[in-house]
Automatic annotation (TrEMBL):
Species lineage: Bacteria, Pseudomonadati, Pseudomonadota, Alphaproteobacteria, Sphingomonadales
Domain named HTH lysR-type: residues: 2-59
Protein name: LysR family transcriptional regulator
GO terms for biological process, alphabetical: DNA-templated transcription
This protein's UniProt keywords: DNA-binding, Transcription, Transcription regulation
UniProt-listed PROSITE patterns: HTH_LYSR (PS50931)
Similarity remark: Belongs to the LysR transcriptional regulatory family.
GO MF term (any one): sequence-specific DNA binding
Source organism of this protein record: Novosphingobium sediminis
Pfam family membership, one: LysR_substrate
Length: 299
């Protein structure tokens, strides 16, 4: 039977690139690490690492074992943290992915509050506007603006978000203000690049998709807001991007007689995740920070 200390020695040696470095990382003598690696190879009946005076090289057997060994160590670590959580203490790593624009505008204070409440959690945040697979992307949880339809995931609702059709006063003065969906299609739009049917408005028999003339396509909400502020065209954006600009008058809400499709913010994570207690605490902290209704819609 494989021993955990042999697996730990194997992963450390691969990560560090040498047995000497692995021994320093594990706080063990170099001879002990070498002995544990040798014992693991004897138990498995294969060679995992080709050793030379300069470096270690994974064999094909080692390449096959490595991801499983990493997962075993990660699950053991998660189990230890879950035991801490059951005693009222939350600790350990938490890897989160979130959209760039929302993260820049709203996650800083919220995360600061969370880490103040849970100082033993080691949070890593990566901002990315591309689609991140919460089940296989290497993150504990992914913040999503929009529906989560993946059955592999649990989705915890953080907040609702309205979407407003907005434009700069200068654009409306130059091009007129659309008063209907038909008029809207004749205007220029700043469009979100990752969704072709992004402009959806409520109608009596369902949803109507409007396709304005594209002035710009971009995959970042802050950039879209700034393009609208510059007068490039109308933009349909969540209130968390434009609530301050609408309040100040820098952007004007345009009423076309129909309500734009709203969206919700979710924190999605794989079922049976080892860090579930930390993820739940993180989601509850975000909900308290955002408020109900969220502060960007409170006015």
């Amino acid at each position: 039977m494989m021993k955990l200390d042999g697996i730990a020695a194997f992963v450390a040696a691969v990560d560090e690139g040498s047995i000497s470095a692995a021994s320093r990382r594990l706080g063990l003598a170099k001879s002990v690490v070498s002995e544990r690696l040798a014992e693991l190879e004897r138990l498995l009946g294969v060679t995992l690492l080709q050793r030379s005076t300069r470096r270690l090289t994974l064999t094909s057997a080692g390449q096959s074992l490595l991801p499983r060994a990493q997962r075993i160590l990660r699950e053991v670590e998660e189990a230890a943290h879950e035991l801490d959580a059951s005693s009222g203490k939350l600790a350990g790593p938490l890897r989160i992915s979130a959209p760039v624009g929302f993260g820049i505008l709203h996650l800083g204070p919220a995360i600061a509050r969370f880490l103040t409440d849970h100082p033993d959690i080691e949070l890593s945040l990566e901002l990315d506007d591309s689609f991140v697979d919460a089940a296989t992307g290497g993150f504990d949880a992914v913040l999503r603006h929009g529906p989560v339809r993946d059955s592999r995931l649990i989705a915890r609702r953080l907040a609702n978000s309205r979407r407003l059709l907005v434009a700069a006063p200068a654009y409306l003065a130059a091009h007129g203000t659309p008063c209907s969906l038909a008029e809207l299609e004749r205007h220029r739009g700043v469009l979100y690049a990752n969704r072709l049917n992004d402009w959806r408005f409520a109608a009596e028999d369902g949803w109507v998709v409007v396709r304005p003339k594209p002035a710009l396509r971009v995959n970042n909400g802050i950039f879209m807001r700034d393009a609208a502020l510059a007068g490039l065209g109308l933009a349909l954006l969540p209130t968390f991007f434009v609530h301050e600009e609408v309040r100040s008058g820098a952007l004007v809400e345009v009423d076309v007689g129909s309500t734009a499709e709203g969206a919700e913010l979710f924190l999605a994570y794989p079922r049976d995740h080892g860090a579930a207690a930390r993820i739940r605490a993180f989601s509850e902290s975000l909900r308290r920070s955002f408020g109900d209704p969220p502060y960007w819609d409170a006015a």
